[in-house]
Automatic annotation (TrEMBL):
This is YkgJ family cysteine cluster protein. It comes from the Archaea. InterPro entries: Puta_zinc/iron-chelating_dom (IPR005358).
Length: 207
């Protein structure tokens, strides 16, 4: 998949639809699978990775090798869900009747749980709807899932806080820092951390 040009990015950004943090919006999933077919564009935190690996009953290292693309930018490691040669997420399956589904749905990443809502940066007050989704503007009115958004923001902050501590304060090399952060999160999940509880996460709401 080729990366979008700067002009295309600017045009896309200008079409984002702002949503009030405690507002309402219309959306109905059309099951087109489009949001899962745009290349490796789902960014992940260590919490996402550990939840997915545990759901698949594999260790985080194996999950990282098989499903994650790691990019180092400005000394910070970033993780993206890998896609196949057509840019489709490796977890997108198609039933014989053409209906598409996510095979790790209960443990899907936070970005997927919130889509088509996009949360900008680490600030809870900047929410947008992705204009590329054909379901935006359709269906019943929905309230923004504020508890889920809060959890997402906590996870992103915590993810980068841990990496920052390891890389900047302790001088650990970026990739090794990512491995240490994953290992730490894995142990927390094994000890029953609330963020690893998929039922609790579902109870925080969805889009
Ligand atoms: S993890 Fe599931 S919901 Fe997310 S992009 Fe992949 S198939 Fe789609």
């Amino acid at each position: 998949m080729s990366s979008p040009s700067l002009d295309e990015l600017e045009e896309y950004t200008s079409r984002l639809i702002p949503v009030e943090p405690s507002g309402v919006f219309r959306f109905r999933c059309t099951r087109c699978g489009g949001c899962c077919s745009g290349g490796p564009n789902v960014s992940l935190t260590v919490f996402d990775v550990v939840r997915m690996a545990r759901f698949l009953r594999i260790e985080w290292r194996g999950f990282l090798r098989g499903y994650v693309k790691v990019i180092i930018a400005d000394v910070m490691p970033h993780m993206l869900l890998r896609g196949d040669e057509r840019g489709r997420c490796l977890f997108l399956a198609e039933k014989h009747n053409g209906v598409k589904l996510c095979v790790i749905y209960p443990a899907r990443p936070m970005r997927c749980r919130l889509y088509p809502l996009l949360v900008e940066g680490l600030k809870p007050r900047r929410l947008y709807l992705d204009p590329k989704s054909p379901g935006v503007g359709q269906g019943p009115e929905r309230r923004t899932p504020s508890r889920l958004i809060e959890q997402y923001i906590w996870e992103r902050r915590e993810h980068y806080r841990r990496l920052h501590r390891l890389i900047v304060e302790e001088g650990v090399e970026p990739l090794e820092a990512l491995y240490q952060a994953l290992s730490e999160a894995w142990k927390e999940a094994e000890q029953g951390a609330a963020w690893a509880d998929l039922d609790r996460l579902s109870g925080l709401g969805s889009v």
